[in-house]
Amino acid sequence: MAESSSSTSNINNGSTSPIANLAQDHLFSILLRLPVDSILSFAMTCKRFRSLASSDTLWESICRRDWGHKQVDAFKYSCSQYQMMMMTVPWMRLYRQVTQLESVSCRNISDADGDLVLPNPRASHSLNFVSNCLVLFGGGCEGGRHLDDTWVAYVGNDFQGMLKWQKVNSGIPSGRFGHTCVVIGDCLVLFGGINDRGNRHNDTWIGQIACHENLGITLSWRLLDVGSIAPPARGAHAACCIDNRKMVIHAGIGLYGLRLGDTWVLELSENFCFGSWQQLVTHPSPPARSGHSLTCIGGNRTVLFGGRGVGYEVLNDVWFLDVYEGFFKWVQISYELQNIPAGFSLPRVGHSATLILGGRVLIYGGEDSARRRKDDFWVLDTKAIPFTSVQQSMLDSRGLLLNMWKRLRAEGYKPNCRSFHRACPDYSGRYLYVFGGMVDGLVQPADTSGLRFDGRLLLVELAPLL
């Protein structure tokens, strides 16, 4: 009995275990190969292991492993002011806070005093974060008119401050709304859209930001040479960048108001001088729709959500686009709605869907089939969905995925319900900028339309406690 007690004590102290004799850098490498739950269990075995398993160095490496180097480096850049005060980032606490995300913090960072020149209220525009700048282009405004203006605001490392917008007069591309614009490298790639005469476009443009000491920020657009093959003209489609070099677009509203269901990929040359479009023909594929979202979650992996179908119904289906054995393939993901609180519905059109810190997708706003606009935030946990196989513990008795959705609390400033706004993250995914959209409210007391366009710039922050 005495021998048994002594043996147990030695194991708990780690003194007789072979792993206790390993060098710390070897232990570090082993821990980085383990799931987080195993690392936390390992930390309970002895004081030496507890110290290593809770170190900032290890947890920064875990964040890099699970979130990617680019997002972590960008997060450290966004925390520069915090680091000057605290000298270090509490990586373990950050990992837990992001993984167990319960809320987001909202702020109105529009000019409250009205001293600055601001973009006009609008919807169905584009908003992108590129070269440390926000770039706003086009959109629709009151009276069904399109806008052709471009606005730029430098962010730098002041992610929470009021931004000074600068209007850029280029004259091109022509005015439009319902277009898409994605960031590839340091460039913007814009496709399609609709003007106020109802004409659809299928042109592709490249935009580049430049900063000058005397001229400030300039943005130049040029029409991209794509040869003789291009997608049919459309608007209200969805797009994203994949594989750091390609743009994928899906569906939208084509000629005569016909909703499309096709998927196209644009591959750019190394110098961005020309590109080539290729249609992806797969079976199965998502039904035709418009006003949906398409979000890249790493590499070629893309998630599609919601929109309005051919019967004008509002959708809540989820599809993934990935590469299998060298070919693109659409896969529909069926899920259980058990975690959706009473009084809330997931189907929506005109929402935003953004990849955030931690590798999940943040869904915000939109409207339902009765045109009721929303102000809710949801996390779609794409990390819980393996592409090639699904563990049985993740499924219910009908084979539906569990725990895919989670509703978040919104703290701080309460934004209006809105749809057809635009949102974009900073490089880390910690901050999300939201501009414009159609919001509830009357333009004039006698106006019964209940429709107006918003011109506020909102900041949505994750991990606000750091």
TrEMBL record:
Keyword tags: Kelch repeat
SUPFAM superfamilies in the cross-refs: F-box domain, Kelch motif
SMART domains assigned to the protein according to its UniProt record, in alphabetical order: FBOX
Segments forming domain F-box: 16-62
Domain of life of the organism encoding this protein: Eukaryota
InterPro entries, per the entry: F-box-like_dom_sf (IPR036047), F-box_dom (IPR001810), Kelch-typ_b-propeller (IPR015915)
Pfam families hit by this protein: F-box-like, Kelch_KLHDC2_KLHL20_DRC7
Name of the featured protein: F-box domain-containing protein
Organism, scientific name: Citrus clementina (Clementine)
Lineage: Eukaryota, Viridiplantae, Streptophyta, Embryophyta, Tracheophyta
